[in-house]
Amino acid sequence: MSCAVKTTPPFISIAEYLGKAPLFVDIGAKYLREFVDAARLYTAPKGKVLFIQGDKANYVYLIVDGWVKLFRETLEGTEAVIDVLTSNHSFGDTSVFEDGYYSYSAEVAEHTRYITLPISMVKSAITTNHQFALNMLLTMSQHRHQQSREIEHLNNQNAPQRIGCFLLRLCPVGSAASVTLNLPYDKALIASRLGIKPETFSRALVKLRAETQIEIQGPTVIIHDLQRLVSYTCNHCSSSFPCKDVKG
Amino acid sequence: MSCAVKTTPPFISIAEYLGKAPLFVDIGAKYLREFVDAARLYTAPKGKVLFIQGDKANYVYLIVDGWVKLFRETLEGTEAVIDVLTSNHSFGDTSVFEDGYYSYSAEVAEHTRYITLPISMVKSAITTNHQFALNMLLTMSQHRHQQSREIEHLNNQNAPQRIGCFLLRLCPVGSAASVTLNLPYDKALIASRLGIKPETFSRALVKLRAETQIEIQGPTVIIHDLQRLVSYTCNHCSSSFPCKDVKG
DNA sequence: CGAGGGTTTGAAGTGCATCAAATAGTGTGG
DNA sequence: CCACACTATTTGATGCACTTCAAACCCTCG
User: Model-level pTM?
Assistant: First the structure.
């Protein structure tokens, strides 16, 4: 599967990217310039490991486009997917508040362009630049809110519903009744992101199709009747359909 | 059940509480005084509803002692427990960054003393007092970290292991091999906090006893061999035993 | 064309949920 | 201090959802 992101405008420069990123809004020209100068842009193919749990945390990562998987490994070697992130999300930033080591591993899930920033610079900007701290706070708050919904889903929705919810969150806001989507990354990864096994995912998708008349062609999903999908999926959830925040 | 909190020293004054709370550390005498003047202390019995989802968010709550349940309700009327909080935790603060309405309901789970602060004051302190914003950021970061572990648990641990993990987190740090605990609130509530049904909880506890030789007498649990409980519980988890942050 | 990863399908097992009912525990008024 | 009412918890029987292990299929790419 190699369907990266939809129609993002072609990337131009680090300065342009950082200037628009929510984390850097209104932090002032001096700080922005410092970040831009220290930032490095990279491209990495699927499978590339960016860092592993326990590494010294030297950088904060910002995703320009693509998808990155964050995960931890248990003592028994099984992998727990924490999150799968895309454009405009950051990771590695949590270690700013922790002990200076990454508490999870990061691996590229689909071809990704990302920017790194020295963590020391982020750390000092937080303490010296109030606006930057506020931006960080807002980001965190959103993330926290999203996580709490995630927990609710694990408790209240069955596998087909979780998949339906995942599909709905992929829909652009204000979608028409009929939408065509490309699954952004491997089905097995979607499965573990949703806390189910690949085999179950496959079967649950079949069941979801039977219930909601969606159409599935490999990595492409066509939703013919959005409302029908919504009513199958969202009834067991406390937040109603256009679940605001967009997320992979 | 009425086993509130262990041996917290008797409470003295709002000023004393706020002076020690992590959120208010180093924010300066002027701000602290303002908060202290605006704060109100309340006592509420089990069952008391503090606010419900959708209410206008006028206050941030700080728990002095006791336990408070945060939850949402789905369209079908089933309740999803988001979190159960105790001493030194705050709630309602998320609405500072949202639309000004509570996104969940709050109900007292065990007799609780709590302090309220006007949300407007908190909001303005965040924007005008850098240290306060930093304190908030640290709190959020910890919370976020804990939530991500919560998600991992739901995916990787079975019911008896989740209960084991819950018990371990109740143990004071540096506990001896043998520990006696009181369950802090109703078993049915523990169950839904762990994402399982009361009946399953009961059976899973029996199974956990068979596996780890713990002793159960109503709401009291005696762990005879901590290490044994750890190895049964934590092998399916990415973080190893003394899971740092304390939480209910 | 063949190799390998990703995905689906089949058969059997396990864990948790559900519904129903019994039991234990707690607080109340007589 | 006891009987009753009510709630919390446990137990039993059964069903469904998800997992597991195994094998087939499909698709891409060298």
Answer: 0.91
